[in-house]
Amino acid sequence: MDKKDDMCRxxxxxxxxxxxxxxxxxxxxxxxNGAGAPSASKGGDEHMNGSRERMQVAGSEERSSxxxxxxxxxxxxxxxxSYTPSPDYDSxxxxxxxxxxxxxxxxGTVYCTNRNCFSCPEGPRLDPTSAALLAVKLAQSTxxxxxxxxxxxxxxxxxxxxxxxxxxxxxPLKKLLQAATSAESNVSTQLELADAIKRCLSSSESAxxxxxxxxxxxxxNEESSGIDFDAVSExxxxxxxxxxxxxxxxxxxxxxxxxxxxxxxxxxxxxLSKLAPPPAGTGTSNKLEHLRMFVVLLLWPGLxxxxxxxSIFKKVCSSVNQLKQDxxxxxxxxxxxxxxxxFREIVVAFQQFITIYVNEFRCIDDHVASATKVLKILWxxxxxxxxxxxxxxxxxxxxxxxxxxxxxARWKDTQRCPFSFCDHxxxxxxxxxxxxxxxxxxxxxxxxxxSALFRSIFGxxxxxxxxxxxxxxxxxxxxxVQISAQQDGNETFLKKxxxxxxxxxxxxxxGGVQKEFFQLIVRQMxxxxxxxxxxxxxxxxxxxxxxxxxNAREFNLIGKVFGLAIYNSVILDVHFPMVVYKxxxxxxxxxxxxxxxxxxxxxxxxxxxxxxxxVEEVFARSFVVDYEEFGVMKTHELKPGGEEISVTNENxxxxxxxxxxxxxxxxxxxxxxxxxxxxxxxxxxxxxRMFIPEELELLIxxxxxxxxxxxxxxxxxxxxxxxxxxxxLNFWTVVHSMTIEEKKKxxxxxxxxxxxxxxxxxxxTFVISRNGPDSERLPTAHTCxxxxxxxxxxxxxxxxxxxxxxxxxxxxxxxx
Length: 816
Known about the structure:
Keywords: Cytoplasm, Transferase, Ubl conjugation pathway
Oligomer: single chain
Helix content: 40-55%
Strand order of the largest sheet: 11-12-14-13
Distance between the termini: 109 Å
Strand content: 5-15%
Enzyme class: transferase
Structural class: alpha/beta
Protein name: HECT-type E3 ubiquitin transferase
Largest sheet: 4 strands, mixed
Low-confidence stretches: 1-87, 149-174, 244-257, 278-286
Number of domains: 5
Number of helices: 32
Radius of gyration: 37 Å
GO molecular function, one term: ubiquitin protein ligase activity
Shape: globular
Number of strands: 14
């Protein structure tokens, strides 16, 4: 090498120009000194003839105009000091090749400002011929436009000619992966591919910019990440295919482990060490670009592999949780773009991690807490755009193994215990939430009992229980009067344990009497003759009567009844549409909710929205609602002057929205407000807010499935009966032959309620005892304890006759 070449090399080093040679590039030099020119000649000629097979960090979209020509005049990177190119032929040719690489591949710097570089968002997107012409022109210039660094070049051995692809920016990556999984693959090919992937995933910027929509660099915003999720899935799927025998090592044995997947894991591990929260002074747009990599990481299937839990999974959780709240909110919105299958895999990965750790260590450590917090982001994303059932967020290990008495205590002591599953109720099933609600209720009951006893010591005469003495024939009026009287001056009296007494009847309330009380009062309140509710035959549900004569006190009372039932662990036989529970939990109703309570009307409104013709001419509607009140038709305007406003194609969406709002909110505002106030007065609070509407319905109404085979499995026998005793076998033969209504009557006779607990009849305690020898005595029951007393009847038919007589005459405490 002569002195002139040394000077050129030193000049390049001062400008930070680096060689781009790598195992994938061979000796294709990025500098413009003469040393590397001979070995670069062949590769350079191939590129100048149109081959651009490269693993790109950004997109590969081509443009027809020479943006680089305009860039020379300014507006890009500040020009470096001018120099005189070496007259040496090899050096000039190497410089042209370097410019060609820069124009077609880029320098690898995210947001490069050199408009003659592919990495610049405003840089050239040219076909090979146009790129070559621009490279020659730049090489002839007296101004230096060469960036430091170069992109990775795919070696000839890894080139793949299949052109089909749905993601233009991933074509080069797919070629690498296709070569690695082909029959001709060898260890060397795998190593070269692994090195290329390592380069692609060497930084959050290069990795996230590899998967952008349309293959074009673009800024992320708070509503959209700009990520091509299909491209990410395709890339990871191709990498996963590398997990197979790929080569013979020195003729002995097959290489079965995947070098490629291990390199992906190592690259992600390195990335996570760089994914600390952006510095405080970082611009907003750069912070958003920084978040892209978190989405890519969450989509990586390797998160499900336990071998990567320590090196990657835990670090992903930690890094996400270190983000500021506004950035976590943005990440949550971005995850709404993930489609169902990919989203479910992310949820499963986190559920699997939590399950393994809870089962193995039987404690709630920082790693379980961290993973649960990330799962909360996924839950929020799914709430905004549903892709999986809310039930897929329930975690069986948590619900079965965690001590929720301790967890509830941690929840109440947030200063000393920052994490509790009660703050992440989406992982808790309705049964667990019901236990927590009951735990909260019991704590409040004990507080009220202690307060009442304390006041009685100092001269008061306060009962520690809420006692209702009622007559069956005047149930609603007696209940309303007594609750109103006891509530006077005591806002917390409803928090006391409930005891019910039916006047003129025997029976001490240990739970069974109050069960019957709730069943009877609900039945009377929902009687159509009482006028508080209407009934829809299509949906088989009740709705608040918009023309009810009762004042707010009655609706407030039934709200209190619902609350007292929850508070005292009693299940009710009510049939409300789901929208009632949504409104109780603060959700706004929509047309979908109307389908649940008035499907016929909802279908009509939907047909109006879907109609392709002239809505005004065919439907001839205006912005009014017609309804009947005591036999007289009346009209309500949905908006001022609505009677004169026709419904058209342009305003039909507004019409439907106003119609639904009137029916589900405005027309029953007074009735529902009183009902909700009474309900929340009894059981409202943080514990109730753990429930979603579907779970609240289960809490109030129980499980709609009556599986008596499951009940048979958990039933215990006493006083001489065994599971295989003839009377017990006959009893279950009779039960399994009953109709649904008869089974409900039997359940009511034995337990005081015809509803199943949240987890089904298999979760009940049920006992059958021998009640003397064969006789004409009817069966009896202790409903407080789910205890059936059954004489030793001599035949199946006699047992059937006596049992049916008993369950058909079950009200009151003559038989129960």
